[in-house]
Amino acid sequence: MSRSDASPVVTGELAVHATADRICATEIEQLAKLLAVVPLDRVALLATFRRIEQGLRDRSAELDRSGGLLDESDKAARPSLAREDERLRDEIDELLMEVETCRRETVGPGGDDELRMCAGAVLAGLRGHRDAEASLVLESADTEVGAGD
Q1: What is the pTM of this model?
Q2: Cis omega (within 30 of 0) on the bond before 39?
Q3: Does 2 reside within a domain?
């Protein structure tokens, strides 16, 4: 399944737009490995930032097409989840700006310490975003046991 394959998954009465791994776990793992290398491999780091940038752009476009992670009926029934869905969509734009900043630092004259801090912040942001998306999807699928009995 490609990142652009978004199809609603119905779980009980709720539906979510499930997709393959959001920001590919491979890029997150690769970034973590690159940050452990001394000195930094700027060429590999640059390539990884480019892939992450593209993944974030693809993810943003995918969510624009599908209307977000949640189905419209789920958003209407659970406004707090709808707000979280919107926050996560906004966060993608913020992450994209952070990745672009780090990518520019990769080819700039700055030292490894500054670049490592920037990339570390991006890595933490990507992991946090991935976990928050997973949590939202799980929470939206959470239905009361015994409802309708």
Answers
A1: 0.79
A2: yes
A3: no
